[in-house]
């Protein structure tokens, strides 16, 4: 049993490292895209219009169809239990389920896309009701151009789920960079796009590329793309739907949070929503790498362990995975708190992106960083619920926080502006994490004692590290080094001090990491 656990743990870490490398490249492409977009449009009317409009198709492509989204999660949860261990080809039953799900998703999303295109002006007028007529009109144009992305989203999620069920982790994490690449190439070739129309076109082209990129591997796995309208006689399809609908509603609730933010942001100064969007992208760069790298291989494992009723295994890998994520997230949080303004300045401040925009993004980022650790816990424990085929509980919890989100924005935005919006997001994330942790006891005894002991030790280490590095940074600034040297040297100092203190406090994750690095160095 011990050898099996060790082998699984090593396999998990190996998969996580490989996925992390791919995600780093993908996130780097996303960063490059953001730099190009910021350089072309700054933080103003055009960028606000694009980011307001993009929230609609992104619901399908990222929230519903992305890695970790409802379509991906539903497919992994059901297909992982149907596919024999070690199988590398789809049998007839799996093929039929795949085509039934694909056909149903295409029909539903196509109908929704047509409605969005027809009523684009009404949708934008409602979401950004405090915006100017010029902003609403431009956002409407962008939304109509990007409507086809809505059709693609769910289908991409199904492809992702199938590939992950067969342990093909790389392609789902490579394909998102195709949208970034399309945007960068089209904008650099155009060089002039005063209203952002080419930006919207490039987004649609990128979504289509993301979809087509999956096809060869899907066919290689033995899947034959044949429309199947047998929606009522397939028991497994009903199982997918039972998991999918509450998960979709849960993600839609998350999108409602964003629409609430959009409503409040439209009353702030021009560029506010763009600044919040860039802050979220900077935040998601390290967090997305870590969370996706660990949860993509962990989720199928959770599903199999639950199917085998191995609840001790679920608890072990949950504590292991989240503990490692927390260990990595604390120094990231310190970096954001100390280096956010200079980091945003170095990355974005060029072209039409000025110092005012830099300040807005840094302010939003600092308040958003508070959600980092609750975010990791919430996303991890949500996968455990999905492994139990329970997406209703995460939905109810997310739904309960809509009023909380609105009230927090109403209280905080007048006093903190942009920071009020992102701080309310952090507090809502914390609320969701706590409630999900309390309710999981209905399914299994989780025993969070070890988790909280390790978390408390790492928290103390992080606080000490922050204050030491705060004063070191003041000294580094006095040296007037180039900004990139300041940032890199401080990032290294933060990591070194943090790791040394973690070793001093005898936190197991640090010792395990150092042992692995030492063994690799010896080889």
Characteristic terms for this protein:
21 helices, 523 residues, mainly alpha, single chain
What do these coordinates show?
With 523 residues, this protein is mainly alpha-helical. It folds into 2 domains: 446 residues, no CATH class; 72 residues, no CATH class. The protein has 21 helices and no strands. α1 runs antiparallel to α13, α3 packs parallel to α13 and α7 runs parallel beside α10. It is globular, with a radius of gyration of 23 Å.
Number of DSSP-assigned strands: 0
Low-confidence stretches: none
Q: State the helix count.
A: 21
Order of helices and strands: HHHHHHHHHHHHHHHHHHHHH
Mean pLDDT: 81
Helix content range of the residues, please? over 70%
List the helices and strands and how they pair.
Elements: H1 2-41, H2 45-64, H3 70-82, H4 92-118, H5 120-127, H6 133-146, H7 148-165, H8 170-174, H9 176-190, H10 197-212, H11 215-220, H12 235-265, H13 272-307, H14 311-348, H15 355-368, H16 372-387, H17 392-416, H18 418-439, H19 449-478, H20 483-504, H21 508-522
Helix pairs in contact: 1-9, 1-13, 1-14, 2-6, 2-7, 2-12, 2-13, 3-7, 3-12, 3-13, 4-7, 5-6, 6-10, 7-10, 9-10, 12-17, 13-14, 13-15, 13-16, 14-15, 14-16, 14-19, 14-20, 15-18, 16-18, 17-18, 19-20
């Amino acid at each position: 049993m011990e050898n099996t656990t060790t082998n699984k743990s090593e396999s998990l870490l190996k998969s996580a490292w490989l996925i992390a490398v791919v995600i780093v490249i993908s996130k780097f492409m996303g960063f490059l895209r953001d730099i190009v977009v910021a350089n072309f449009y700054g933080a103003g009317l055009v960028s606000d219009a694009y980011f307001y409009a993009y929230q609609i198709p992104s619901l399908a492509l990222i929230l519903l169809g992305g890695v970790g989204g409802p379509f991906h999660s539903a497919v992994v949860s059901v297909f992982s239990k149907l596919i024999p261990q070690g199988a590398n080809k789809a049998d007839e039953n799996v093929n039929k389920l795949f085509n039934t799900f694909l056909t149903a998703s295409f029909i539903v999303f196509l109908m929704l896309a047509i409605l969005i295109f027809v009523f684009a002006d009404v949708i934008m007028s409602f979401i950004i009701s405090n915006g100017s007529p010029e902003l609403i009109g431009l956002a409407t144009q962008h939304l109509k151009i990007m409507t086809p992305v809505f059709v693609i989203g769910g289908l991409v999620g199904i492809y992702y789920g199938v590939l992950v069920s067969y342990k093909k982790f790389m392609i789902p994490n490579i394909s998102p960079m195709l949208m970034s690449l399309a945007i960068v190439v089209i904008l650099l070739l155009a060089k002039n796009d005063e209203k952002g129309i080419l930006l919207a076109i490039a987004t649609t082209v990128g979504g289509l590329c993301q979809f087509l990129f999956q096809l060869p591997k899907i066919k290689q796995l033995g899947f034959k793309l044949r429309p199947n309208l047998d929606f009522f006689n397939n028991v497994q399809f009903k199982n997918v739907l039972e998991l999918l609908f509450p998960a979709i509603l849960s993600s839609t609730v998350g999108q409602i949070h964003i629409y609430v933010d959009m409503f409040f942001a439209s009353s702030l100064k021009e560029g506010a929503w763009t600044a919040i969007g860039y802050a979220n992208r900077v935040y998601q760069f390290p967090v997305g790498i870590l969370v996706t790298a660990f949860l993509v291989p962990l989720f199928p494992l959770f599903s199999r362990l639950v199917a085998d009723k191995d609840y001790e295994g679920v608890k072990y890998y949950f504590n292991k995975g989240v503990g490692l994520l927390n260990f990595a997230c604390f120094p990231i949080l310190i970096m954001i708190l100390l280096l956010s303004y200079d980091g945003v300045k170095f990355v974005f401040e060029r072209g039409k992106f000025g110092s005012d925009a830099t300040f807005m993004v840094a302010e939003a980022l600092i308040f958003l960083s508070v959600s980092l650790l609750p975010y990791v816990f919430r996303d991890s424990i949500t996968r455990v619920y999905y492994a139990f085929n329970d997406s209703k509980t995460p939905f109810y919890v997310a739904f309960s926080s809509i009023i909380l989100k609105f009230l927090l924005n109403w209280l905080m935005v007048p006093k903190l502006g942009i920071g009020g919006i992102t701080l309310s997001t952090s507090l809502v994330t914390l609320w969701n994490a706590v409630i999900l942790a309390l309710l999981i006891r209905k399914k299994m005894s989780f025993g969070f004692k070890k988790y909280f002991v390790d978390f408390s030790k790492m928290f103390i280490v992080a606080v000490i590290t922050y204050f030491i590095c705060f004063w070191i940074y003041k000294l580094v600034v006095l040296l007037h080094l180039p900004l990139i040297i300041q940032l890199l040297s401080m990032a290294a100092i933060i990591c070194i001090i943090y790791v040394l203190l973690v070793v001093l406090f005898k936190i197991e994750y640090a010792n395990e990491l150092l042992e692995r690095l030492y063994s690799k160095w010896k080889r």
